[in-house]
Amino acid sequence: METSYVLHTQYNLSIPYTPFFDSYNQSIIPLPSSGTPLERKDSTNSISPPEKGNPLGTDEPLIGNRLKYIEDSTVDTRYILVVASASGILAFNNPSTLTYSLLAHLHKMSQFPSQQPVPDLASTAGYLLGHANYPSLFRSADEVPQFFVSYRWWEDEVTTILWAFDAQEIKRVIRYGLFQDEHLPRKVLQTRNAATIDTFLLTLVEPHERALFPSLSHTQKVEEIVRRCRVATPSLVSWGWFPACKDGDLTPLAIAEAIDAESQLHFTRISFEELVRYSLGWPSSRVDWFLQQHTVFYVHLLNYLNAFPEDRGRYVEVEKHLRERSPFAHRALARCLLAVQGISSQADLSSNTPQGFEFFAGPIQRLFRDLPPSLTLILKVLSVLGVRFQRTYVHARAMEWTRPFNVAFSFLEDLLGSTSSMDFARTLTNADERDFSGIVEHGIFDQSLIQRLCIQWELLSLDVWECCTALPDMVGSIQECLQPLLLLRTYHSFMAVLTGLHKYSVSESSACVETDTPTASLAPKPVLPPDLVHFLDPFQNYAAYRQQFENAAGIPFLIPHMREYQQKGEPVLRQLALKLENVVP
């Protein structure tokens, strides 16, 4: 029969008599007093703690988190007691040595103030290697603002769209999954007729794949539709950055940047669609995994700083650089520093700990509160924002964790709200006239306004690219506004839309192999109107545009004018100001 020494503690736990104690003067397990000697017991037996008695000869009551009492008369010398304390590791295998040395040590410990906080397992977890679970530092429900609406209208509209005939809308409904029953699309589509399902499936497959599907059953076709409508997500990875002695040559800033990059890597493993659902209150396994990996980081760092306490000062500096970076990594590091200093890691870092995902969830929640109750509209908006999400976070070298996610969609809103291409062009023209008003005051250009307008032009071209990428069925409507913009001489928006279409054309290029050469080449998607593409040619500082502007002045495309000003000086601006007097109100 297995034999061991067992003690009962104040926590009502039976702990084998090979205790491992906290090394910061705060021992977890109280030992029994005189009158209750240790005995060799079977593993099923134990010793109850004493009610009173103190071999140190004082009347001081038992303090539960401090070792104070021991009776060694029956300690089996074949066993060694190991006590970890502030003065190091004490090991005894001789009864008399155990009695006098340990009692003296415990009496010294008893002189510490009794107000010292009782440690929790989180603060000692780093020392219980292989013997304890590590509590999570995060709860997913606490990392987003609470979201309450009286009526979740989008859930009711899902079924209506699934029974309609717009394949793109059905695809977006399945992609975002804004419904409680995850099998709802499958159930609805399985009840629809075969011709409708075939039509939907053909919109989702490439031409060379069409011959593969006629042999599928109705149920298999539905499964294929559902599968293709869902976004493929990257595989999850474990935390891969580790503190190491070899990092001694790195500055605290470099270490903070490396930690932030690792945190961003794990953030990119959460899809935009899943973050939207999470923001609206649905559970997310990928968010849970993301948070779990930051607890893993905490454990790695805790163990490292316990093993190499001389590095603690350096990580105090790392924490300062991490404050404006990943809030999750910063919180884990800060909790770790608190833990190694002997402070409970369960205590809040501050009374206003920020919600880590508020930068994303807050703007998404406002969309669902403020937009008109139309699932068709909001899914189109989300599709455009999904492209922006990729550009802002996935393809970025570094994230801005505190800047709210930009959910503005004025270009798409104007496009969807227009009744014709001319109506849309007039809307863009009116906006440009407002933006350009005041650019010239008493014959002097406002240089700061010019700079803002140039930045706005770049952002408008990106809005066009996002819209085309997210909603290819809207490309035709965007193309149709170009001629009216040129007719209205709104060159600012005209060149921005044309540039955005060009970005989309190149992004959607397809590879092709020339018949007379083995070299592969890229063929841009043909979305640029052939009769307008020459305006994009930057040859001789956009000579084609400048000739057009010279013949029919309008709201200018500023970049070539500013370049000409840098080359030729003030006369260029004076001439431009004269032209604008008759154009901009």
UniProtKB/TrEMBL annotation:
<protein>
    <recommendedName>
        <fullName>Ras-GEF domain-containing protein</fullName>
    </recommendedName>
</protein>
<feature type="region of interest" description="Disordered">
    <location>
        <begin position="32"/>
        <end position="58"/>
    </location>
</feature>
